[in-house]
Amino acid sequence: MSDKRSLSRRDFLRTTAFSAVGLALAACAAPAAPAPAAAPAAGEAAPAATAAPVAAEKVQVRFHARIGAQEDALYDMMMPKFMEENPNIEIVRESFPGADFVTKVSTMMAGGTLGDAMWSALGGATIYFHYAQNIIAPLDDLVAAQAVDLSQWYEGCLNAITIEGSLLGIPFKAHPGWGATYYNASAYAEVGLAEPTADWTLDDQIEYAMKLHKTEGDQVVRFGYLPGGLENAWKALLCVTRAYGGQLLNEDGTQFLLMEDAARQAIQYTWDMHNVHNVAPKPDQILGSVGEMWIAGALAMNTAGTFRSNADAAIGDTFDWMAVGNAKGPAGVGGSDYEVDAFCVTSASQHPTEAFQWVQYLTSQESGVQLGLIGGTIGGRPDVYGDERLLAFPFRRVFKDLMDNAQPSRLVGNWRQGEAEGVLAQMCQPLWAGTEEPTDEYISSIATAVQDVLNKPRP
Question: What band does 56 get if pLDDT is binned at 50, 70 and 90?
C-alpha cells in the first residue's frame, strides 16, 4: 500500500503476545500468603474460629472453534482476559479444521458430547444446517434476558442469520462479500494510468485491464484482470449480476434466475474477459493459486473478499496495492452481499447464560478490532469498521464504505447453498476455459442443474 503504518503488524503481534502471556501468568500466579494472625494477649480468650469461605464453583464453558491463524491468535488473546474478568467461568477451547467442522459437531451432538458455544457461518448456509439439525439454539430469549442491544451489529448481518423469526447467532466476523477489486497501484503508475475511483464502471474496467495487461513475446507476465469466478463463481457472478440490476435468486430462494437478462450479461462480461479481451487467465493458466499470483504481481487486478488483504505482509515492498469497490454497472452499484461468521449457543448447553456471555465477548467491539489488527476480516459491527485504529490502514476505509452500503444476502430456500454453489462452479469452468460459449443452450443447462438442487428438500 502507498500509506505506511505507524505500527507494524509484527510489532502489534509482539505487544499483544506479551500482554496475553502477562495475563495468563497473572491468572496462574499463586496468591500472596496472608499475614499470620496476632496471638491473643495474656489473659485474653482466643478468638472464636470462623468457617473458611466456600469458593464458588466455576462453570466450565466448552466452545468449538474453527481452526485459523487469525482466529487462534484472537482466542489466545481474549480467553485469559475474559476469565480474569469473569473468575466464575472457565473457557475450554476445542478447535477443528474447517473442512471437518460440520461433521465433527454433528457427531458430537449425536454422541451427547457437544459443548456450550460454537462457531458457525452463513457461507454454504452452514448456520441454517446447524439450526435444522437442532445443534444450535435461537438466542432471542437470552438477548431479551440480558437486554442486549442488537443495534451494535450491522442489521444486514443479523438479518442474514435470522431464520423463521429466530436469531441464530451473533456476528463474529463479517464482510461485504466479493465486493472489492484489488489493484496493483505500481502497475497503474508503470503504464501512466490513473487509479480507479469509487465511481469507475464496467467499461472502465475493460479499458484499464487491456492497458495493464503485459506480455513479453508470447509470454504473459501480468494479466490485466481476473474476475472472481475462478475462485467463487456464485459470489462473483452475484456481484456482477447485481451491477446489471438483477439477482441470482428470487426473494425466497426457490428459483435460480440465471436465464434472466442481468445474469446472462454477467456471464457474458466474465466470459469476454477470459476469451474475447484475453486479459484474464484461463483455469489452466493459474499457477499455484490466485492468491499466490496476486502476491507475485502476475495480476494487475482481481476481485475478491476482504480476505485478500491478508496478502499485504507477503507482498511487502514488491509493489504498492490498494482496493476499490467493484466497477459499477447499469444499476449504479458494483454488487455486494453480507458474509457472516457467527458464534452461537448450542442446544445441548447446560450453561447457556455463561455461554452467551462468552459469545458476546467474542463479538464485542474490541474483539472485532483486534481481528483486524491481527490481519484479515473484522467484526460485523459499525463501531469496528469505523474504529480509528483500523481506518489507519487505507484499504479499511474502502471496506467501511462497502460494508455500510452492502446489499442484503440471499441464500437458497432449502439451505443447500454449498451444493448449489458447487454445481455452478463446476459448470462454469468450461466457460472460463473457453471450451464452452455462453449460448442459450449451455446457460440453460447450468440453470437446470442448479434448479435441481434448489428443488430438493431441506437437509
Answer: low
pTM, to two decimals: 0.86
Question: Could you tell me the residue range of the domain that residue 86 belongs to?
Answer: 58-176+338-404
Query: In this structure, are 324 and 392 located in the same domain?
Result: no
For cell 444476502, name the residue: 409
Q: Is residue 371 assigned to a domain?
A: yes
Of 372, 340, 421, which Cα lies nearest the Cα of 120? 340
Same domain, 89 and 197: no
Does position 410 have pLDDT exceeding 50, yes or no? yes
Q: Give phi and psi for 457, each to the nearest 5.
A: -70, 165
Question: Does 267 fall in a domain?
Answer: yes
Of the two residues 172 and 12, the one the predictor is more confident about is 172
Strands 219-222 and 214-216: antiparallel
- Calpha distance 368→373 (Å, rounded): 9
284 shares a domain with 187: yes
Residues 293 and 371 in one domain: no
Quick one: pLDDT at residue 459? 84
CB 212 within 8 A of CB 222: yes
Instruction: Supply the CATH number for residue 450's domain.
Output: 3.40.190.10
The answer to whether 157 and 283 are in contact (CB under 8 A) is no
Measure the CA–CA gap between 156 and 138, rounded to whole angstroms: 18
pLDDT at 34: 36
Residues 6+ apart with CB under 8 A from 340: 121, 122, 157, 160, 161, 171, 172, 173, 174, 380, 409
DSSP 51-106: PPPPPPPPEEEEEEEE--HHHHHHHHHHHHHHHHH-TTEEEEEEEE-HHHHHHHHH
- Residues 166 and 228 both lie in one domain: no
Cα–Cα distance, 253 to 89 (Å, whole number): 41
| Same structural domain, 311 and 418 | yes
Domain count, the chain: 2
The residue type at 82: F
pLDDT in tens, 273-301: 999 999 999 999 999 999 999 999 999 99
